[in-house]
Structure formats: structure tokens, C-alpha cells
Amino acid sequence: MVLRRLTDQTTWRRWAYLVVGGALLLPYWLLGMVLVGLVPFIPQGGLSGVAVLIVPIFAAFVTGLVPTVRPLESTAARELLRGASGELNARPPDSWESRARAGAWFSLHLHVGVVIAAMSLAIPPFAIGLLLFPFVDWGLAEDESPLHGWKQSAWEWLGPPAGLLMVLVLLALIIAAGEMLSRLAPIFLGPTPTERLAELETKAVKLAERNRLARELHDSVGHALSVVTLQAGAAGRVLDTDPAFAREALSAIEESARSALEDLDHVLGLLREDASPRTAPQATLKDVDRLLEQTRIAGVKLDAEVDGGVEHVPAAVSREAYRIVQEALTNALRHAGKVPVRLRITVRGGRLEVEVSNPLDGVSAGHHSGGRGLDGIRERVTVLRGDMTAGPDGGQWRVGVSLPLRSGS
After folding, report:
1. Do 296 and 368 fall within a single domain?
2. Residue 119 needs a FRET pair 20 to 30 A away by CA distance; which of 16, 84, 225, 277 works?
3. Average model confidence (pLDDT) for the chain?
4. Per-residue pLDDT tens for 311-338?
């Protein structure tokens, strides 16, 4: 276990982090000695020594309040300390609480680091001397120093074990100090409750945007593929008997495929991290005639009534309503086939009413209950605080949606 820790690069990365902290503390010690020497009411002696130690602690803490210190320390801790510090997010502090924690960490880093750095410089030479003590004279045999007696007795053989013990103690302290700082770093440099809440809000916004893009892709591309499938089948059946209809169907296939490709390219572009901003397709109820025409070309008998008041529906509601109609028609094409479909879009009482129905048999009833189509419609309705019903109704499969035109409706 110990040998594995000594050969682990993380141990020596942490040691480097500590030594750097010790080096950074030296200017603060010099500052402390200068200030103590300039203050007349601090007597020389033990009190001045305490002051020299206290000044660097306070000065390092004040330095840590600088906003750039936290991201620098977080980056260094994440790269060198690893372990629990590996998930630190290098971001500037957004409150005095996070600044104070960063200041406390900076002071702790420097002072623990200077202890490890000093021991790393002092212990190895002294330990080497003890390891070689029985084998090297160094002129101690003729010396009158206290070590002269040791060189003339069996006590000199205690030198190598003592030197080895000192090295082991140093290595244990390096490992313990590195592990301690790795565990404490997230506490001092990690996000505050306010920052965690802001991060969760950011993630929620991103997730909502991705879900919206998924709905857009499902509705637009799913509808296009359903229409293309039916149109291609119809064109193939009448290619020899009705070339004019076949050409019209192929033209509609081309238009549907091009529209789906544009939507797909847009969504994939938004999902790329390095994508440049693009203008999203903004189909609204004003474009519903084109949608109805594509559905009719697919061979569906569509009975549609669209209230002229849809021209004045707010843009946000109009965009979502278009997608709702598109998905409802797609469901009818996909699950019921080329059956008569009835569509009603009306504006009354401050609400937009959408109803799509088609004949229902035993086979299509089961199909309507699955898939993401109804879930996507329900999500859009929920966002707009509307009402939705979907299910069998007197031999018909009926989807009804009611959306308020204003947020307070």
C-alpha cells in the first residue's frame, strides 16, 4: 500500500503543489519581518516572533479575497491534488462568502506547504548523514564534539535506522498533507449553496432547451417522413396509370424532405458546442395551409376548418399550436393510415381550440396509445398552461387542445 502510494504520480503532484505554496509564503514572511521592525510598540523577543507568524496568515487571507485567486487555486488543485478535488469548477467567486473561503484556503495552502517544503529541504541531507554515520569518519574520531563518543561505541549503529525513520516520517507527512488538502479543497473552493442553485438552474435551462429541440425534431422530421412514406407509396401505385399525380407526389416528397433536412440541420447545429447562432425555423399557424396541402397530397382525405382569427394569435402560442397540429396529423397518418381526418382550429373566449379526429378501429386504437407523439403534445400544452384530451370518443380517435392566448387566461 505504502509502496504503491510512493510510486503514484498523484503523490508527487500533491507534493509539488505543497512546495509551490511554501515558496509563495516567503514574500509574506519578509513582509511580516519588515512590518514588525517598523512598528515601534512591538517589543523585540517572543512577541515579535509571534507577530511575524501572524502577519503572513492575515496577508495570505487578504490576497485570497482577490477574485482571480479562486479560479487559479481551483485549477491548480484540480490538476495537482486530484482525488476529491478533481471535480472543482474554476470559476470566480460571486459572493463574499466564497471569497472568504478562498482566502482561508490560500492561507492554509501556503502554511501547510511551507512546513512540507522546509522538511523536504532539511530532512533528506540529515537522514543521509545518519545512514552513513557508521561508515564515514568525517574527522569525528579526533574531534572533541559530543558525537565523538558515539563514534567510539555501538550507539553509532542507531544512525541508519534513525535516518530511515526520518525519511519514512517525511514521506508519510507528504502523503497525509496531500490527502488532507485534496479532501478539504472542495469544502473551501467548491460552490456555495447559491452557486449550486445557479448551476442547477443553468442545467435546467439547457435540459429544457434540449427537450424543446427534441420535440421540434420529432414533430417536423417525423411528420415529413410519414408524409413521404405515404406519398412514395401512392406515387408507386399510380406511376403507370396516372403520371401527373405521380409527378405531383414526387414534387411534394422533395419539398417535405427539403423542409425536414433544414430542420434537422438547424437542430444539429444548435447541439454543437461550437455552433454559430442560427435562426430557428419559426413555422406558425399562418403556415398551416402548406402543412394541410402536404397531408392531402399524401392521399389523406382532410376536412379542415381554420378560423380567420388565428392570424392574431400571439407568436409563442401560434408556434406551439402549429407543432401540435403537425404532430396530431402525423399520428393520424402513422397509426390510422389514409383515413378521413377532421381538423378544427378556432379562436373563442380568449383561447385557441384545436381538435383533430379520425375513425378508430381496434388496430389503430392500440397504436395511438404508444410513441412520443402524444407526450410531445402534452409537454407543449403544459408549458402554455393549456388543457388536453386524447382518446377514443364515439368510434373516433380525438385529440383536443385548448390553449390560453394570454398567460393570465
Report:
1. yes
2. 84
3. 79
4. 888 888 888 898 899 888 888 877 766 7
| pLDDT, tens only, 286-310 | 888 888 887 787 677 889 999 888 8
Segments forming the whole domain that contains residue 367: 198-404
Distance between CA 401 and CA 15 in Å, rounded?
A: 65
pLDDT value, residue 191? 85
152 and 242 co-located in one domain: no
End position of a domain, from candidates 164, 191, 218: 191
Q: Cell numbers of 213, please? A: 429541440
Same domain, 249 and 132: no
Pair (170, 203) in one structural domain: no
Work out the average pLDDT over 38-43: 60
Structural domain includes residue 378 = yes
pTM here?
0.55
